[in-house]
C-alpha cells in the first residue's frame, strides 16, 4: 500500500497544516445518514418503502419518469450502516448515493439599487434605443433582436432562489399569462440544506435575490434602466431550491429538475454548483438524463478559478450538460446620483456618487479638503490627522478607500469636526454604498469613482478650490453610466472555474459575459443590481438557446451546443491585470465567447463540440469529426489549428497551483489533419481524421494542453473546434493529503495532537449532535472515486492491529479536492458497539482510474490512536 508521508510532520506543525488546507474549500457538505436511492426500473417500490418504514424517514419521494427513487434519513446513526447496506441490497434498489448539500456560487454583488437611495427609480434618466446592452452586443444577441428574434413561445425552467415576479420588469405576477408562468417552491423559506424541505406553490424570491437577477438576464422586460433580458418573449418556470439561508441538497435539486422537465420546459438552466469533478454525481446524472431526453440544460461552471486546474463543479460536469464559463463585461454599469461641482468658481460640472449612510446631503455646498494628495496611498486617512489640521466642519472631506474601515476613516475626520465625507474608490470598479453610521458629527457619506476622485485631487494639488453641491438625494436625478473596462473586459473572468473533470471530460463548453452584469433584483432589496459570476453568464446562454431555437426550429441539445461551440470566439488569456498574447486554455474558456447570430444562421454543423485526447495512460492519438453542409451550395473549407496556453497542474506541492500564479507555457500540441482543404457538397458531409502529438512537457507536473481546430469556409463561416488533453498519468497523482482525528464539538475540526486522545462516548445508541465524539477527517489534494474510513483495533505490545472494517457512511464516493469527514459514535461495522479500548482510523483513498480491488491503488493514512469508554446508561 502507498503510504503518504505528510502525516507525521504535520502533527507537529498546525500552522503548516492550515496553510496547506487553504487549498481545500469545504463547499459541499455530506448529510450524515442521509441517502438518495434510485429504484430499479421495473421493480415495485413498495418493497423499499416497507423495508425502510421502521428504520428511516422518507425525506422526499422522487417519483419521476427519468428518476424513480427517494431520499431517506436513517433514524439511528448507530446501526444505520447495517441498515444502509441492507437497503442497498434490496432488489428494488438500483443505486444509492450519500446526499450532499450545495451552495449558491460566491457571486460578487457589486452594487444593488439601494445605492441610489429610496425611490431612486423615479429619478433614473432613461436610456432607450436599440439593443445596446453590452452583454448583448458582445454575444451578437443585439443582431438577433434587431431581426425580431425574441424567444417567443419558448419555456425556460430556472432552478434558483425563486423569482420576484412582482417586479414590473419581470411581469408583475405569477401564473398563466405572466412572464413567470409556471414553477413552484420546492423548499420553503426556512429550508437551509440540512433540514427537511417544506414545499409550497409560490416561488417568490423576497430574501435571496440571485434567482431574480438570473430571471432578468434571460427575460427582463423594458424598464427604467433601459435594458432587457436576452429573450424577453420567453415564459419562465421558477423552481425555488434555496430557503433564505444555506444551501440546497441533491434530492431537492433532482426534484426541481424533474418537475421543470415534466412541466414541459424547452430549456432548463441553473446557476448552482459545488466542487465535484465527477459526472457520476447523482445530480449530474439526473441532469444528463434530461439532456438525453432532448431538453438542453445549461449550468454555470463555478466561481472557483483561484483553485486552479481540475476543480470542475457539478452539475455542470455532467455528461452532455452544457457548462458555462464567464467573461468580463466590456463595461462596468454604475448607478450614481447626479450632483455638481465647480472649480475656482467656474462653470458647474456634473458628477455622480453612490449614496452612503448617513445620507443627509440635501443642499450641502462646500469645498473639498483632502488629508492626502497621494492617489496611490493604500491607507489614506487611517491614522489620526496632524494637530495642524483645519476645522473640517466647513468642508467635504475627500478620502481614498482602502486598508481600514469607512468608520475608522470617518472617525479620524470627525476628530476635526467633519460632517461630510466623500470617499473615492481605490479600484476601477465603480463606487459602492459606504456606511459610517454612528460616527459623531458625520451627517453625509458617499463614494465617487476612482477617476472622479483622482481628477479632484489633481485640482486640489494644483491649488484650486473645488466646491461640491448636492440636491436632495431622494429627488436628484440618478444616472446609469457605463465605465469602460479596458483591463479585463472581453476576456475570461479570473474567477471562472478551471476544469477538466477528473476523467478528462472537456468542460466548460461555452462562455458569455458574467462579470459586472446589470439585471433585476427583488423590489424590496432595491429592484436592480450589478453582480459578477458564472451565475450571470449561464442564464444569458440559456436565453441565447431560446433565440437560436426560434431561428433553427429545433431544441436538440447537441445541435445547439455544437453550433454555439463551433461559432464561438476564443479569447486571449488575462490574469486580472495583464492580457497575454496567447489563447486562454480550453479548461478555462471552453469554446470561447458565444456568437448567437452566427450560430443561429450557420449552415455548417460539426459532429462534435470538442475533442478529448485524455491523459498519457489513456491517450487517444487519433480521432475524427464530420463536417455537414446544411446549405444549398458547395463549400470549401481551409482547415488548420491554433494552440492555447498549456497549464501545469502542479509545481511541487501535492495540491494544484492557484490562478493567477499557475505556470503557463506556449508549448503546443502538434495537430495533424487528414485534409487541410476539403469541399463539402451542398447537403453532404465529409469526415476529417485528427492525429495529435502532445507537447513534450514534464508529465509529473500534469500539464493540460489544448487548442482549436479552425475551419474557414468559402461561405464565410469561420469555425473552431476545441481540443484538450493532459501529459502525464492521472492514475499516479497522489489524492490523499492527510487523514487525522478531530472531535465533533470543534467547529474548525482541528487535528487532535499528542499521543493519547481519549473519549467518553454516550451510552450506545444515545449519541446526539451535542456530544463530543471522534471525527475522522480526510484532506484530499486531488479527486478520488472512493474513500474508505476504516476502524482499526490497536493491538497491545504483543499483538498486531486489527482492521475491523468501514465505519458508518464509508466509503464516500466521487469526491473532489476538499475536506471530508465522518463522525463515529462507537458503532461497529456489524451494528454492535466497539468495546472500550484503543482504536485508530485508517483512511484509504482510491486513485483516479484506479481498480478498487487493488490495494496498491490506494493512498493510505492513519489517525493517532485514541481510547474510548462509554458513559453509563441513564
Ligand atoms: C408514482 O407515480 C405513479 C404515477 O403517477 C403513481 O402511480 C405511483 O403511485 C407513485 N408512487 C409513489 C410511491 O408515490
Ligand atoms: C435602431 O436600429 C434601426 C435599424 O438598424 C435604425 O434604423 C435606427 O436608427 C436605430 N435607432 C437608434 C435609436 O439607434
Ligand atoms: C479517459 O480514459 C478513461 C479510462 O478509459 C475513461 O474512463 C475516461 O472516460 C476517458 N475520458 C474521456 C474524456 O474520454
Ligand atoms: C471515426 O472514429 C470512430 C471512432 O471514434 C470510428 O469508429 C470511425 O471508423 C472513424 N471514422 C472514420 C471515417 O475514420
Ligand atoms: C481562418 O481565418 C482566420 C481569420 O481570418 C485566420 O487567422 C486563420 O489563419 C484562418 N485559418 C485557416 C486554416 O486558413
Ligand atoms: C496522556 O493523557 C494523560 C491523562 O489525560 C495526560 O496527563 C498526559 O499528558 C497525556 N500524554 C500525552 C503525551 O499527551
Ligand atoms: C509481551 O511479551 C513479552 C515477552 O513474551 C512479555 O515479557 C511481556 O510481558 C508481554 N507484554 C504484554 C503487555 O503482554
UniProtKB/TrEMBL annotation:
Q: Its domain of life?
A: Eukaryota
Residues at the catalytic site: 160 (charge relay system), 210 (charge relay system), 535 (charge relay system)
Q: Where is the PA domain?
A: 371-444
Task: Please provide, alphabetically and separated by semicolons, the GO molecular function terms listed in this UniProt record.
Answer: serine-type endopeptidase activity
Q: Where's the C5a peptidase/Subtilisin-like protease SBT2-like Fn3-like domain?
A: 612-723
Q: Could you state one GO biological process linked to this protein?
A: proteolysis
Kindly give the InterPro entries that the UniProt entry links to this protein: C5a/SBT2-like_Fn3, PA_dom_sf, PA_domain, Peptidase_S8/S53_dom, Peptidase_S8/S53_dom_sf, Peptidase_S8_His-AS, Peptidase_S8_Ser-AS, Peptidase_S8_subtilisin-like
Residue ranges occupied by any Peptidase S8/S53 domain in the UniProt entry: 151-578
Q: Does the keyword Transmembrane helix apply?
A: no
Cellular component, GO, one term: membrane
SUPFAM superfamilies annotated for this entry? PA domain, Subtilisin-like
Sorted keywords for this record are: Cell wall, Hydrolase, Protease, Secreted, Serine protease, Signal
Q: Which residues form the signal peptide?
A: 1-23
Family membership, please give it: Belongs to the peptidase S8 family.
Can you say what this protein is called?
Answer: Peptidase S8/S53 domain-containing protein
Annotated source species: Monosporascus ibericus
Amino acid at each position: 500500500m502507498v503510504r503518504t508521508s505528510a502525516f507525521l510532520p504535520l502533527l507537529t506543525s498546525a500552522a503548516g497544516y492550515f496553510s496547506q488546507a487553504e487549498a481545500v474549500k469545504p463547499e459541499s457538505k455530506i448529510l450524515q445518514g442521509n441517502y438518495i436511492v434510485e429504484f430499479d426500473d421495473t421493480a415495485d417500490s413498495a418493497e423499499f418503502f416497507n423495508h425502510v418504514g421502521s428504520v428511516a424517514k422518507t425525506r422526499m419521494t422522487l417519483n419521476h419518469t427519468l428518476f424513480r427513487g427517494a431520499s431517506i434519513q436513517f433514524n439511528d446513526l448507530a446501526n444505520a450502516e447495517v441498515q444502509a447496506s441492507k437497503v442497498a441490497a434490496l432488489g428494488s434498489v438500483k443505486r444509492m448515493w450519500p446526499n450532499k448539500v450545495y451552495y449558491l456560487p460566491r457571486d460578487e454583488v457589486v452594487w444593488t439599487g439601494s445605492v441610489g437611495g429610496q425611490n431612486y427609480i423615479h429619478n433614473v434618466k432613461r436610456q432607450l434605443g436599440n439593443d445596446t446592452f453590452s452583454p448583448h452586443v458582445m454575444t451578437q444577441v443585439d443582431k438577433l433582436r434587431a431581426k425580431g428574434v425574441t424567444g417567443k413561445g419558448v419555456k425556460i425552467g430556472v432552478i434558483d432562489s425563486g423569482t420576484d415576479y412582482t417586479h414590473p420588469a419581470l411581469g408583475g405576477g405569477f401564473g398563466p399569462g405572466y412572464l413567470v408562468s409556471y414553477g413552484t417552491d420546492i423548499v420553503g423559506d426556512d429550508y437551509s440544506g440540512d433540514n427537511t424541505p417544506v414545499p409550497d406553490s409560490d416561488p417568490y424570491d423576497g430574501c435571496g435575490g440571485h434567482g431574480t437577477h438570473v430571471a432578468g438576464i434571460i427575460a427582463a422586460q423594458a424598464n427604467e434602466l433601459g435594458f432587457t433580458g436576452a429573450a424577453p418573449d420567453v415564459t419562465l418556470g421558477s423552481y425555488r431550491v434555496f430557503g433564505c439561508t444555506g444551501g440546497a441538497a441533491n434530492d431537492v435539486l433532482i426534484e426541481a429538475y424533474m418537475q421543470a422537465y415534466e412541466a414541459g420546459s424547452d430549456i432548463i438552466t441553473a446557476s448552482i454548483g459545488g466542487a465535484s469533478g465527477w459526472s457520476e454525481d447523482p445530480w449530474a446524472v439526473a441532469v444528463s438524463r434530461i439532456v438525453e431526453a432532448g431538453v438542453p440544460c445549461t449550468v454555470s461552471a463555478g466561481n472557483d478559478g483561484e483553485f486552479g486546474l481540475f476543480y470542475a463543479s457539478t452539475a455542470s460536469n455532467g455528461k452532455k450538460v452544457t457548462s458555462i464559463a464567464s467573461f468580463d463585461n466590456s463595461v462596468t454599469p454604475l448607478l450614481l446620483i447626479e450632483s455638481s461641482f465647480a472649480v475656482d468658481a467656474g462653470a458647474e460640472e456634473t458628477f455622480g456618487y453612490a449614496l452612503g449612510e448617513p445620507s443627509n446631503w440635501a443642499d450641502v455646498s462646500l469645498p473639498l479638503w483632502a488629508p492626502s494628495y497621494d492617489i496611490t496611498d493604500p491607507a489614506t486617512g487611517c491614522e489620526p490627522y496632524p494637530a495642524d489640521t483645519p476645522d473640517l466642519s466647513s468642508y467635504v472631506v475627500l478620502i481614498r478607500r482602502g486598508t481600514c474601515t469607512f468608520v475608522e476613516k470617518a472617525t479620524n475626520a470627525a476628530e476635526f469636526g467633519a460632517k461630510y465625507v466623500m470617499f473615492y474608490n481605490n479600484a476601477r470598479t465603480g463606487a459602492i454604498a459606504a456606511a459610517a453610521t454612528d460616527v459623531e458629527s458625520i451627517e453625509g457619506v458617499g463614494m465617487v469613482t476612482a477617476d472622479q476622485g483622482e481628477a479632484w485631487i489633481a485640482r486640489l494639488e494644483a491649488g484650486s478650490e473645488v466646491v461640491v453641491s448636492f440636491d436632495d438625494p431622494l429627488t436628484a436625478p440618478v444616472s446609469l453610466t457605463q465605465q469602460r473596462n479596458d483591463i479585463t473586459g472581453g476576456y475570461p473572468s479570473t474567477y471562472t472555474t478551471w476544469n477538466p473533470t477528473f476523467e478528462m471530460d472537456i468542460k466548460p463548453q461555452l462562455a458569455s459575459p458574467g462579470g459586472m452584469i446589470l439585471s433585476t433584483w427583488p423590489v424590496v432589496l432595491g429592484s436592480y443590481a450589478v453582480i459578477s459570476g458564472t451565475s450571470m453568464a449561464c442564464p444569458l446562454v440559456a436565453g441565447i438557446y431560446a433565440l437560436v431555437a426560434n431561428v433553427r426550429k429545433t431544441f436538440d441539445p447537441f445541435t445547439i451546443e455544437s453550433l454555439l461551440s463551433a461559432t464561438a470566439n476564443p479569447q486571449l488569456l488575462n490574469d486580472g491585470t495583464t492580457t497575454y498574447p496567447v489563447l486562454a486554455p480550453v479548461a478555462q474558456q471552453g469554446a470561447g465567447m458565444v456568437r448567437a447570430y452566427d450560430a443561429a444562421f450557420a449552415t455548417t454543423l460539426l459532429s462534435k463540440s470538442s475533442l478529448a485526447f485524455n491523459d498519457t495512460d489513456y491517450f487517444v492519438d487519433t480521432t475524427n469529426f464530420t463536417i455537414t453542409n446544411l446549405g444549398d451550395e458547395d463549400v470549401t473549407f481551409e482547415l488548420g489549428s491554433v494552440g492555447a496556453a498549456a497549464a501545469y497542474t502542479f509545481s511541487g506541492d501535492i495540491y494544484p497551483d492557484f490562478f493567477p500564479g499557475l505556470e503557463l507555457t506556449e508549448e503546443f500540441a502538434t495537430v495533424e489533419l487528414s485534409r487541410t482543404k476539403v469541399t463539402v457538397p451542398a447537403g453532404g458531409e465529409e469526415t476529417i481524421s485528427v492525429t495529435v502529438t502532445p507537447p513534450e512537457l514534464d508529465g509529473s507536473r500534469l500539464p493540460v494542453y489544448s487548442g482549436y481546430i479552425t475551419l474557414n469556409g468559402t461561405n464565410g463561416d469561420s469555425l473552431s473546434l476545441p481540443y484538450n488533453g493532459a501529459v502525464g498519468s492521472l492514475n499516479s497523482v497522489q489524492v490523499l493529503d492527510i487523514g487525522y482525528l478531530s472531535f465533533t464539538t470543534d467547529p474548525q475540526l482541528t487535528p487532535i495532537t499528542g499521543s493519547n486522545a481519549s473519549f467518553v462516548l454516550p451510552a450506545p445508541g444515545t449519541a446526539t449532535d451535542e456530544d463530543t465524539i471522534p471525527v475522522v477527517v480526510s484532506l484530499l489534494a486531488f479527486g478520488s472515486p472512493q474513500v474508505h474510513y476504516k476502524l482499526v483495533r490497536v493491538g497491545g505490545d504483543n499483538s498486531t492491529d486489527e482492521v475491523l472494517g468501514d465505519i458508518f457512511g464509508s466509503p464516500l464516493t466521487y469526491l473532489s479536492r476538499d475536506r471530508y469527514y465522518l463522525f463515529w459514535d462507537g458503532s461497529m461495522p456489524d451494528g454492535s458497539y466497539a468495546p472500550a479500548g484503543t482504536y485508530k482510523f485508517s483512511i484509504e483513498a482510491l486513485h483516479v482510474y484506479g481498480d478498487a480491488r487493488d490495494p496498491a491503488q490506494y493512498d493510505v493514512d492513519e489517525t493517532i490512536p485514541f481510547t474510548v469508554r462509554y458513559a453509563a446508561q441513564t
